[in-house]
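Below is a filled-in request sheet from our internal design queue. Each sheet records the structural input a requester submitted and the sequence that came back. We keep these sheets so that new team members can see what a complete request looks like end to end.

REQUESTER: design group, bay 2
PRIORITY: normal
MODE: inverse folding
CHAIN LENGTH: 231
BACKBONE (tokenized):
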């Protein structure tokens, strides 16, 4: 495709489907500055399970024996414009919002070691076929480019998909993802830190299930890194 043909195609798309803010519908932007300024960033981090305040979202001593996670770092509250943008990205298939969401996330990933390995929560084949892309992977690719972290998108695969986590209560979520993830790509992670990216965390069950498999590859620390916490 020539540059001229591509430019004409982009122009026609903008005419038929004009770009507008996913939150307030302002034209010529997918996530305007005014709506970005309304994001409520977390001032403190919490244990992902009991929500006790901890440094950088570490799993607290009381929950540590029950989890493979080192901690979960959450950037913002799942509320307001950010909630609307994530919803459009995941369920309205506005894939182009990956760049805006990566812009929100990457400054906070700078706190992690550059030699850490970045991966993401895998989608089930059913979800991948429905959406056409793994929403976590698309953002994580950009984060890896921005930070220089080594990225393995296929570190894990989802072998089971029972009931969507959103339809379950907290305790049921842990049972629902038990044995749902398996190692897809055997990589020596001995002595390394691994960061698992996902868009949302609620109970921490999915991230914990992923962390359990990653620990089998020798990782010493496994962190969750997410855009927002859902209530």
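RETURNED SEQUENCE:
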């Amino acid at each position: 495709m020539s540059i001229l043909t591509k430019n004409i195609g982009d122009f026609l798309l903008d005419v038929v489907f004009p770009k507008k803010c996913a939150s307030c519908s302002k034209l010529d932007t997918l996530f305007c500055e005014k709506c970005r300024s309304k994001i409520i960033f977390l001032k403190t981090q919490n244990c992902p399970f009991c929500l006790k305040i901890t440094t950088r979202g570490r799993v607290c001593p009381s929950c540590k024996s029950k989890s493979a996670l080192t901690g979960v770092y959450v950037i913002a509250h799942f509320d307001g414009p950010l909630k609307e943008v994530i919803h459009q990205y995941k369920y309205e298939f506005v894939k182009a919002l990956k760049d805006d969401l990566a812009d929100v996330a990457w400054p906070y990933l700078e706190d992690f070691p550059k030699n850490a390995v970045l991966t993401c929560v895998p989608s089930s084949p059913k979800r991948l076929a429905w959406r056409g892309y793994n929403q976590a992977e698309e953002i994580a690719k950009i984060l890896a480019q921005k930070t220089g972290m080594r990225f393995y998108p296929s570190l894990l695969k989802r072998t089971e998909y029972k009931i969507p986590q959103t339809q379950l209560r907290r305790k049921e979520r842990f049972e629902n993802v038990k044995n749902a993830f398996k190692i897809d790509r055997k990589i020596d992670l001995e002595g390394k830190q691994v960061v698992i990216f996902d868009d949302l965390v609620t109970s921490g069950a999915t991230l914990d299930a992923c962390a359990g498999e990653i620990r089998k590859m020798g990782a010493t620390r496994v962190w969750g890194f997410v855009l927002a916490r859902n209530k």
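SHEET NOTES:
- The first strand starts at residue 45 and ends at 46.
- The chain has two domains: 1-35, 38-229.
FILED BY: M.R.
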